[in-house]
Amino acid sequence: MASEPVFQCKTNILYGAAILDRTRHPVTFYAIKNTMKIVVRPATEADIPSLTELFVQSAEYHAEQAPYFFRLPPNDWIHEFFVGHLNNPNVRLLIAERDSKIVGEVRAEIKKTSEIPLIKAFTTLQVEEIVVLQSHRRFGVARTLMAKIEEIAHEQKISQVTLNVWDFNVSAKSLYAELGYVVQRSVMKKDL
Q1: What was the pLDDT predicted at 38?
Q2: pTM (2 decimals)?
Q3: Which residues are paired to 111 by β-bridges?
């Protein structure tokens, strides 16, 4: 994947108000104190151990909330999973760093839908996963990662960012709603 410019954010643990600059400028969260600098950059193969830590944190949460669906994969599978995504030209795998420590990641994929008589052709940047270390939540890391994904979509002339979120993930649903995402469809199930 081609090297992309570093994306930086200053955020505050006290205030959630932000000015989101949709141009090539960083997202800046104005802070009064407890300021942290968040740097977003493309992931590399050297980041896989930290990506694995984030993936396991997310997998454990999902397996705890929906054990009928999720399970913990072995680490060697996770390693190959990330290698495959790093080598996929349609995938954007970004990490967020604070003080040179990886504290979050987002993985999104360009998806193209062909036109059929019922559906128009369209392209979307589909967020497949976003994870922030538990210790770094509520510091603007996820907002910064999502802003970068939206910037990438804009640069690629993709007019829509989509994502899936499990109903049990209340904090994620709240964040996405605050960022302007709306429910497009729901998937329902019934255990028999």
Answers
A1: 92
A2: 0.80
A3: 124
